[in-house]
Amino acid sequence: MVFGGHLKAQTKDYPVSIGVIAGYNGYSGELGNSFFSFDQSFYGHVGGELRIRLNDNLSLMGNYVRGEIGYLEYDKPSFTGGFNGGMLLLKYRFMEEEDFIRPYVVIGPGGYQYYGDKIANSLNWTGNGGVGVDFNLSERWVADLRIVGSYNFSDDVNEDNPPDFGVKSGDWVFYATAGLRFQFGFGKDSDGDGVKDQKDECPDTPGLIELNGCPDTDKDGIADKDDQCPTQAGLAEFQGCPDTDGDSIPDPSDECPTEAGLAVFNGCPDMDNDSVPDVRDDCPEVPGPVEFNGCPDTDGDTVLDTLDRCPTVPGVVALRGCPDKDGDGIADIDDRCPDVAGIPENKGCPEVKVEHVQIFTKALTGITFFASSDKIKSSSYDVLDDIVDIMKANPHYKLYIAGYASSDGDDDMNLKLSKDRAASVRKYIESKGVESSRLRSDGFGEANPIADNSTPAGRAKNRRVEFTVEF
């Protein structure tokens, strides 16, 4: 339960208070009860009071009062008189000392001297207990309302009167009291910041009054002792830490403090929404799986697109993601014979068999023509038929036929003749059932001689047809 607010200054800076009290008191005993009884006379009291605070909740309170007491009723025993005395009470407060309204309880001994008609002039010891409420009117002034019951332990009845008269052992006197007191004291200010140590939450470090004496190094309105980032101005919602990128993740917890991001990624962004934060995404602008650090594998061959030479066609890791249909270890994109296993030296095409090479070599001198003509002599048919057999047995072979001439005669005529003779050979092979798509021919005249044109034997060698297997 809270009664009111706090005072700007704490009253515990002023441990001693003095004040005046006044109120109404009434008798309650064997004769009857005059406390708040409207058919009885009013009996009052006035006095002074001193209080000393012992700790945050306990105080010692002493007072001295003078007043009247009595009980009057027709045709019954009665008495009137005066009294003076006081109580020494231990006070326990339930609320904080800074609260406006502070309920409390008191208990302690007392001593009163009663005097007057039928009352002996001697000291009467009492036991006292009650409840009250303090009201903090300002930093120094406190008002007080309380009711205290005082139980008498001794008889002060005049021995010349009957024993039922006066205040006697076992009787009660109740006091309803209002008071006003002034608080004072000299609080210590160890750090010299204008805030007394009793109020100063940082008594050894100079600070600000509005922060109860604690410093605020980064001037963000949050005391350093409560500031998780005391040297960087921040926000109260983040215990004084900044949020530079405004993503609601404080910088100390933000892995990417200058880029707005997501809490699930410790404040880092994920531009491609692939569940891999950009800071760990090798391909931050293209979605990809987590296991590949955010990079895609379009063809699903476990080779990332960024490393895959054939990113849209599944391939093998060893060939950087490209397929190898013929299994010769040469990627199809580099394989001139992708459907036939070959060797690297032939760019993936098979190695030409030795016996085939021998036949093609034999053809260099085994194919002859009539003089100045492209007509093949019949003596050449055996070698040409051997070539036809090779082409049919190896459907992956393609044949390039090149014709050459010696230096005899006109250059232009030699060039035309070499072309015609190469074409005649090509047509002969075609006529034997080899697809034309596998054959091509050309002539180069006197170019690329393989022997000396100055001798008859050399010129004879230069008049030739060469065969090159292609794939």
Order of helices and strands: EEEEEEEEHHEHEHE
Helix share of residues?
A: 10-25%
Percent in strands: 25-35%
Poorly predicted runs are: 1-11
Mean pLDDT across the residues is 88
How many beta-strand runs? Answer: 11
CATH class categorisation of the domain at 11-184:
Mainly Beta
Structural class by sheet pairing and helices: alpha+beta
Radius of gyration: 60 Å
Distance between the termini: 98 Å
Give me the CATH fold name of the domain at 11-184. Porin
In the CATH classification, which architecture of the domain at 11-184 applies? Beta Barrel
Strand order of the largest sheet: 1-2-3-4-5-6-7-8
Note the main sheet. Answer: 8 strands, antiparallel, barrel
Shape: rod-shaped
Helices, by number, come to 4
Short account of what is shown:
It is built from 4 helices and 11 strands. The chain is an alpha+beta fold and 471 residues long.
